[in-house]
UniProtKB/TrEMBL annotation:
Glycosyl hydrolase family 59 C-terminal lectin domain segment(s): 495-668
Source organism per UniProt: Scytalopus superciliaris
Catalysed reaction, written as an equation: a D-galactosylceramide + H2O = an N-acyl-sphingoid base + D-galactose; beta-D-galactosyl-(1<->1)-sphing-4-enine + H2O = sphing-4-enine + D-galactose
Nucleotide-binding in keyword set: no
Active site: E185 (proton donor/acceptor), E261 (nucleophile)
GO MF entry, a single one: galactosylceramidase activity
Name recorded for this polypeptide: Galactocerebrosidase
Domain Glycosyl hydrolase family 59 catalytic, first and last residues per copy: 42-336
Signal peptide boundaries: 1-22
Major subcellular location class: other
InterPro entries linked to this entry: Aldolase_TIM, GH, GH59_C, GH59_cat, Glyco_hydro_59, Glyco_hydro_59_dom
EC number: 3.2.1.46
Family the entry assigns: Belongs to the glycosyl hydrolase 59 family.
Amino acid sequence: ALLWGAILLGCSCGPGPPSVSAAPLLTATYVLDDADGLGRQFDGIGAVSGGGATSRLLVNYQEPYRSQILDYLFKPNFGASLHILKVEIGGDGQSTDGTEPSHMHYENDENYFRGYEWWLMKEAKKRNPKIKLIGLPWTFPRWIGKGENWPYDYPDVTAYYIVSWILGAKQYHDLDIDYIGIWNERAFNSKYIKLLRYTLDKRGLEQVRIIASDRLWEPISFVLLIDSELHGVVDVIGAHYPGTKTVQNALLTEKKLWSSEDYSTFNDEVGAGCWARILNQNYVNGNMTSTIAWNLVASYYEELPFGRCGLMTAQEPWSGHYKVEAPIWITAHTTQFTQPGWSYLQVDGHLEGGGSFVALTDGLGNLTIIIETMTHNHSQCIRPPLPNFSVTPQRATFYLKGSFYMVKTLQVWHSRLGFESGNSSLFQQLNPLKVWRGRFSLDLDVDEVYTLTTLKTGQKCGYQEPPPPQPFPSNYKDDFNIRNPPFSEAPNFADQTGVFEYFVNASDPGDHVFTLRQVVVQRPITWVSDADQTISIIGNFQWVNMTVTCDIYIEKQHDGGVFIAGRVDNGGIYVRRTKGVFFWVFADGTYRVTRDLAGQEILMKGLSGVRDNAWHTLTLNIQGNSASGLLNGYPLWENVTVSKPSHGWAALGTRSFEFAQFDNFHVE
């Protein structure tokens, strides 16, 4: 309490009141001086939407809640106030928590209104016109590789495809893409990168910068050192999950070094501790001038891989509930008091008692210092493993020199992550700190973040509590009857292999003009092991007993097929191993009931009389350990024993990458 008094009263020109504990505080001094020049230029803090389908449920929120979530993420001096938004360039393939649609499913196809990343970039720009935009592919449509699972055999085709996305962003959405990546966490190809630069320049996109290779520091750093032409076209080396460290070759390139994907940690207090530590230490230890979190907002079913690994959580559009998690306010400690284009000061940045600090200036007299004292067990990120270190309470005395000597007061923003007490204090403004003859002291406890700044623009803003959480509706219908849908995908369906889009069935004068159609007809160039079947999930992972009904239309003759399913237990990167209760019908007039998406574990099979290019209604009923199926309202099979999985989502999909349509979906 005494130490707090010292801070709150601004008594920081001398060594505050005596400490109550017996052991004297560790004390150390640090000098901040710009007289000998500045450190590296700061490039901003950002987050990733995609890689994949991480913002899927966000778009379905009703107003005002959707706009509130976007304000917390992007609005300057409000919440996270992000400087950078990085999005997936959808490629129709599974990219972690789902698939995102490509702007070119097929070679002769272009559509710049699919998915939700265009919308998200526009919403970000609306709130912060200065926000930087990055595009990066995880997967590609198959035609890019002319049938091969590789995007570099025809680099001119791949470059054309990526540059089309950048041009489409400008033409249809007035969005200027600032940076473009190569292929997320996969091999890079020097010939392709050079051709991409050439194609960008030829299309008048000289201002678009190239990041490579969104994987590890090597081999890209080494290759840049030996290939001067490649060195000339790569602007930023982007590494993923670098553990705050860089390598000598990366430094020798003299390129900008970014942690172009990091964090990926459950967004509780430990996740906030991880984020606080790496936001500082990526620069202090690794000279990285930008850190980008995967992911922006956890807007996907929580039981998919890496549930709640977003800066905030918005996974219930049906209730309107969302949660502004601690990482949002940890972000604000840096983003609200710096801007891309500021410079780091040349300081060591390690605190004697453990923890770190960075100092940045705009070169116009403003100074921002961010201090973190995260302890080891309270700041472990999901990867890489964190070596042991210790942090103790300490007194830090700072001497401001050079152009900062005249600073008289600093605004103080403080967070304390409360692990023992369970109650955290996040991004609170304290009394300003008096600086006396360029000197001030601060008593630091463990697991704290301080921002000391000359800027007076910081704000902790908020809205009244959103509605309370509710499970997914236990009775849910969608007839897909929407003439001009705001998005290409139906609400709450989360595609896990393939892409399911609203479709206008012009040839059907009857009840099925507006349908949902699976549109990916070739296996994409994959990033992980997509299933051999397509599947979209929906609902509540805890559902046990359910009835799923859907009208289906097989378009592929002879060997086409579709399914509806319940108790579906998997998705995302694990989609190939998905189990559940699957009711299939095929164009050859047969049906099957299987325990798995792969269709290997057959529980029942027989004749159905279903044919292609005709509408049929399937009903799957699961109660306890028993399942039954109806075709067009009549029992087709019954009393099939189903024990595992015991619960899961509802789903629909196709036997292969094939066109098929669905209508009048109902789950109860």
